[in-house]
């Protein structure tokens, strides 16, 4: 046994020595005959080495190989690596002298060898038992090792065990490196990890869990395109048929796109003048063109100005209830049906001073809508997504009254004569100390540059425009869009706004909800709401509900007012009424339950 191992070391030293001498050979010696002789000599030594190696393995069968110096030194791996490098260099030199150059049609000169290019060695992937890595490992090992007819079963098993760690290595630990064990080891590994059902579930989970794109972003489009393409390829590699997948994949991907990309896709398809369903290749081409366009336009001022001007046109035409933005061009305001002055009915001080019963009689006598005060329709035909903030029914809050109550607070906000918009109080208080609870919520505001901040907002379904404080705009670094308008509230209070901003609002309770908001910038919005600490409502029904503002009873600043343009998008099914007549109402929303 010792003689055999000593002989093995001598052969190993000879192979390594020959390789080192070859590397020192001058270029003029590297003729075709010289290389062929070197190659033959190397092959003879390698066959002797392999023969001795297999004999050693057979003689040590059943022995703890970790105690033998031959295996401790891992001499086989060292010599095999040298052999592969030596053989590769000889073959490269041989090919350089026999290859006919296509450009000249003449053989290369033996005295002028081709320059050597040392390519990196192909590294086999290491498999640790992660199912997501199995398919990649399986395909590469199958191509490089398993289907390589020049490798013996012993060599294949050696390569297989050297690429395994963790659980798969433990699985094959008791299989010794023998020719008969390779097929058993390979099948054992496949039975454990070649689980098509599990692998397909993991791929589909990655495909369907992609996040929706909330704003135009070339990086986000590339990510969703690359992830989807990768998942489709992985499913095909599992042998799944993909002939009829296109319509499902297209629906999934398009539903994740931002609004503008979605709109452009629908426009492109509608112009195809065909009844055929779109294909996945069509969507791929569209997305590639789309992210290239966005990359070209990203950061250009002209594009930003164009988009901002469009946004101003869309938003500046909105009416308002809580507050009204008017173009500063002397446009006429409709006359009040109560006092004939230039303001709307709900802004009329004289109308607001009347009792709810008197206001109701006046609206009925004039044939006005009980919900929005419009003379053109009745409450049954009203499309306004508003309702009474006291009881949640389909009538204006100014028309709410209770039999045991002479007068209730009817408005939640006003504009101060000094020009700074303010919400008078979170609770509108009368002499008899009844309270009107206004809906507040905590939300995450995300700017276009990725900055985010948790802010407290007032949800005012009576305001047909949204507003944000100057401090919040500066804190988030929001880009301003120039506007020139006047904000007016109940009465004659007015304030000028010179800019508006766009941003995203995300729910703290629903990770899937995100809405883009355009808001006008005001120097300040409110005093602290409520004005003083209020007692927590004793209402068991809401104890376990996710409240939009868990600290609704503590005074705090309002950073934003969300108007009716956002209100309709956040309301969800679910309405709870307090057992007492004067108690609050809990409404379910995408932001949590509001009171």
From TrEMBL:
<dbReference type="Pfam" id="PF03564">
    <property type="entry name" value="DUF1759"/>
</dbReference>
<dbReference type="InterPro" id="IPR021109">
    <property type="entry name" value="Peptidase_aspartic_dom_sf"/>
</dbReference>
<protein>
    <recommendedName>
        <fullName>Peptidase aspartic putative domain-containing protein</fullName>
    </recommendedName>
</protein>
<dbReference type="InterPro" id="IPR005312">
    <property type="entry name" value="DUF1759"/>
</dbReference>
